[in-house]
Write a structure and sequence with these properties.
The chain is an alpha+beta fold.
Length: 108
């Protein structure tokens, strides 16, 4: 029985492209976006200091307290610790230090 079709032709679609070339482009784009988002979040989280006690990320404008041995406590957990902090700092936005401030130096 000769039907004129080769064996294995049923494994490929009518346009004879391999299955990997026919993957949904929208799915590939969504996977790429998700990978980029995860990488960006990981990079951002690495730059932030989490509270050593509650593991919460401090909010922008919140004061964090720095102790010996790289320990960081948020304002909520600071009251639970009897040791005095070495220093404190404000949490800034990621754009802090990367923006321009225009100073008017014209004669008044």
């Amino acid at each position: 029985m000769a039907t004129g079709k080769r064996e294995g032709a049923a494994a490929r679609p009518a346009n004879n492209l391999p299955m990997s070339a026919l993957q949904d482009p929208a799915r590939e784009i969504a996977e790429l976006e998700l990978a980029l988002l995860r990488r960006g979040m990981d990079e951002r989280a690495a730059g932030l200091g989490r509270c050593s006690r509650c593991r919460r990320s401090p909010l922008i404008g919140e004061r964090v307290y720095l102790y010996e041995r790289e320990r960081v406590l948020c304002e909520l957990c600071r009251n639970l610790d009897r040791e005095a902090p070495g220093r404190s700092r404000l949490v800034h936005t990621p754009a802090f230090g990367h923006t321009l401030r225009i100073i008017d130096q014209r004669a008044a």
